[in-house]
């Protein structure tokens, strides 16, 4: 910890090896540090979320999460913390493990709720609307599902034709583009289903929406932007 005005160190707290992400509580009293157990690089190593007291520097608590690469997202108002445990595909004689989203209070770290997801999730937090979107496949390599989450609640669930590979929010925050192995789908968040789908010759690898929200640019795996 460093003093913002003098730039002098104020103290330090050991949280474990392999820290991959962190977030601060809105009042600045707590820090949340996400790391792999003992710094293990294996993807099946369980992640841990460590809570650090910044007023009296020291560990405040610790929570073990599921296996798989995890990510940490904080809501735009700072009141909610989202921790994604990405799960694992089947292998080494073990069954596949689905992803799980843990929703915590952004000030205390207390659990509000949790949501069971599919496999190979992709996550997007819209900074304008505060909407959290998580797309995953219902089973390994199969069709997808998109969860629209605000706060600690799932507002809507949408079916997606292909296993999701990535997503991007439209400018008005009322639509979302989701790409799979061979197509890009467009979803109206206030509608009932996937509004449109567009075939892409080669496997999509990235998606970008123009500032005015009128165009989506798709980067194909073997071709330049189209």
Strands, helices and their partners?
Elements: E1 19-24, E2 30-36, E3 47-53, E4 58-64, E5 70-74, E6 80-85, E7 100-105, E8 111-116, E9 119-125, E10 132-137, E11 144-150, E12 153-160, E13 166-169, E14 175-179, E15 183-188, E16 194-199, E17 204-209, E18 216-220
Antiparallel strand pairs: 1-2, 2-3, 3-4, 5-6, 6-7, 7-8, 9-10, 10-11, 11-12, 13-14, 14-15, 15-16, 17-18
Descriptive account of the structure:
With 226 residues, this protein is mainly β. It has two domains: 1-116, Methylamine Dehydrogenase, Chain H, CATH 2.130.10; 119-226, 7 Propeller (Methylamine Dehydrogenase, Chain H). It has strands at 19-24, 30-36, 47-53, 58-64, 70-74, 80-85, 100-105, 111-116, 119-125, 132-137, 144-150, 153-160, 166-169, 175-179, 183-188, 194-199, 204-209, 216-220. A four-stranded antiparallel β-sheet has the order 1-2-3-4, with no helix packed on it. A hairpin with a 3-residue loop joins strand 14 (175-179) and strand 15. The radius of gyration is 19 Å and the shape is globular. The model has no long low-confidence stretch (mean pLDDT 75).
């Amino acid at each position: 910890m460093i003093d913002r005005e003098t730039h002098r160190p104020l103290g330090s707290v050991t949280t474990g090896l392999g820290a991959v992400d962190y977030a601060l509580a809105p009042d600045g009293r707590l820090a949340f540090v996400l790391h792999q157990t003992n710094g293990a690089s294996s993807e099946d190593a369980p992640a841990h979320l460590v809570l650090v007291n910044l007023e009296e520097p020291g560990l405040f608590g610790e929570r073990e999460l599921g296996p798989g690469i995890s990510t940490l997202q904080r809501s735009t108002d700072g009141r909610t913390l989202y921790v994604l445990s990405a799960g694992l595909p089947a292998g080494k004689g073990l069954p596949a493990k689905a992803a799980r989203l843990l929703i915590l209070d952004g000030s205390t770290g207390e659990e509000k709720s949790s949501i069971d997801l599919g496999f190979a999730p992709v996550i997007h937090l819209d900074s304008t609307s505060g909407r959290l979107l998580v797309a995953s496949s219902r089973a390994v390599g199969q069709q997808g599902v998109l969860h629209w989450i605000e706060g600690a609640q799932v507002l809507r669930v949408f079916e997606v034709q292909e296993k999701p590979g990535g997503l991007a929010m439209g400018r008005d925050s009322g639509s979302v583009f989701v790409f799979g192995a061979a197509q890009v789908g467009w979803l109206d968040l206030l509608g009932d289903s996937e509004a449109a789908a567009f075939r892409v010759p080669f496997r999509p690898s990235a998606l970008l929406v123009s500032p005015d929200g009128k165009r989506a640019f798709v980067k194909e795996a073997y071709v330049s932007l189209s």
